[in-house]
Amino acid sequence: MIVSGYDHGERGAGIRDLILVLPSVGCANSVVEMARRQVDGVRVLTHQHGCGQLGADLDVTRELLARTSAHPNLRGAIVVSLGCETNRPDELARRARELGAAVRVVGIQELGGASAAVDAVRRAAAELRDGEVVRRELARGELRLGLICDQQAGERGEQLLQLLMGELAAEGIATVDGGPVALSPASPAVPTSGVSSIPELWLAHWSRAPSARLWPAAGASEIEALSLVAAAGAHAIVLVTGRLTTVGSPIAPTLRVCVDPDLGFPDLYDIVAAPGEAPRALAERVIHAVAMTAAGQPTEAERSGQRDFAILRSAPSV
Fold it and tell me: Which residues have C-beta within 8 Å of that of residue 113, sequence separation ≥ 6?
């Protein structure tokens, strides 16, 4: 599979050329939403964390947001900060830059309010857009595809994933396997031993091994797993499902593949298995859709503006 992408420097080439606006803390969500409505050409995500978080939860929030900001599909990221959160924006930006991100920080309190902050986001976005991004062909093994399968996809879903992994390996495409995800939004308990290494355990595959499996994404909710797989640098994500679902990452084009031909609502999905369709034929259709997505064709999730994002945590926190 030959893929031409946008060269984003240390982060590698991406299949999209996006500018992301994200909050360092949930208290800044409203300003991020204002920026979505008032600043042209930006993607946004929101979350509910970063205010009084401590310890492992704070580490994970900062690490996940930093890795999301350094995604290869991004030209740059703009962090919107309230100014009094424990998830300090300067530390978040420093970590994102260590990962190769182009980051700007906008402080709501520092600038004197929401309107001034949105104006600053607009200026930062224009600065990040300044200059052309070189197009180049992604080298073999550079394209990374995330794979997620929900529990209701059953044996058909697992069989499809195995076929996809074989086909992708033959094409020289690395995979990030999010494993089977939970249908409940509740997160599993996280081990308390080795607390400082929790982010590294979750995102250890960032070493760019040919393929990797996330831990503990197998117990994560659908959106938590989606966020982890995207933060792992997956250029696009294939979500294999046996149920109604409308989720999609704000930065990694998400292909929704339904393995149940009787489910209905085909416009929710990019691909629906046909009655009696052989698993290999379905896998070939998915591979073709991946190629089209990498070439720039929007997924159903992109067309509908999906921007689902969630952060795993070890205990109730804010």
Answer: none
pLDDT at 315: 64
> Which residue from 184, 175, 179 is spatially nearest to 148, judged by alpha carbons?
179
Contact 6, 296 (CB under 8 A): no
| pLDDT given at position 316 | 62
Q: What average pLDDT does the chain have?
A: 86
Helix H or strand E segment including 108:
helix 108-111
Q: Which amino acid is at 190?
A: V
Cβ-proximal residues to 298 (8 Å cutoff; 6+ apart), any chain: 253
Q: How far is Cα 305 from Cα 30, in angstroms, rounded to an integer?
A: 18
E strand intervals along the chain: 4-7, 13-14, 18-23, 43-44, 74-81, 103-107, 135-137, 144-150, 174-181, 211-213, 236-241, 254-258, 271-272
> How far apart are the C-alpha atoms of 275 and 289, rounded to whole Å?
19
Alpha-carbon span 63 to 94, nearest angstrom: 11
Instruction: Report the half-sphere exposure of 23 (CA within 13 A, side-chain side).
Output: 30
pLDDT lower than 50: segments of the chain: 183-210, 213, 215-218
| Cα–Cα distance measured from residue 226 to residue 65, given in angstroms and rounded to the nearest whole number | 13
pLDDT at 180: 64
Sheet holding 4-7, edge to edge: 13-14, 4-7, 135-137
CA distance 206 to 152: 29
Contact 65, 77 (CB under 8 A): no
Which residues make Cβ contacts (< 8 Å) with residue 249, sequence separation at least 6? 226, 227, 229, 230, 237, 301, 306, 307, 308, 309
DSSP tag of 116: H
